């Protein structure tokens, strides 16, 4: 069975890291130098113990009775997430979802740079989406090899996802971000994260039905 990111023991903490980072960057820009666990806990709608455990896995240490240095904490989280390095990626499927991802300007702040897209639609091939070139699927292997790409993003319909994954793996891709709602069969040395867009809505919809005021972050 291939490596799945959702199975790692620290996954809940890791998923919270971007939210911490967003808050900390805002504080830094406002000139705030020190932040305490209680303040972060209020922002996260969590408790201090969870916050301290989350931040501890980054290697960050606070001063008792004082708190954490904001900029040091930002650096620690970015290093832990590997966002202090820029990861190049290719995207397969330049449809509505793929186009939206290509146009999202926040990825590079998160250490991700999508270089281009690949598609099987002749009407898309040779054009650009949000300034990113769209190539024929047959060009993917050479592009990945020449540019030494390790990450592939799948935005094709579920019925084409496995075939797309096989092409990516054969090209040398070692990590896949899968936006198709299907479980992929991959080699053991390929790690995959599956994103189910409807999952967030399912949680929100259920909370609305049950009258819950908040959802898990």
**What integer value in Å does the Rg equal?**
20 Å
Q: Which shape, going by the Cα principal axes?
A: globular
Look at the structure and give the mean pLDDT.
Answer: 92
Beta-strand portion reads: 15-25%
Structural class: alpha/beta
Which blocks of ≥5 consecutive residues have pLDDT under 50? 3-7
Q: Kindly, what is the distance between the CA atoms of the first and last residues, rounded to a whole number of angstroms? A: 29 Å
Order the strands across the largest sheet as they lie in space: 1-10-9-8-4-5-7-6
- State the order of secondary-structure elements, H for helix, E for strand: EHEHHEHEHEEEHEHEEH
Helix content: 40-55%
| Annotation, overall tally of beta strands | 10
Main sheet attributes: strand count, strand direction, barrel closure:
8 strands, mixed
The helix count comes to 8
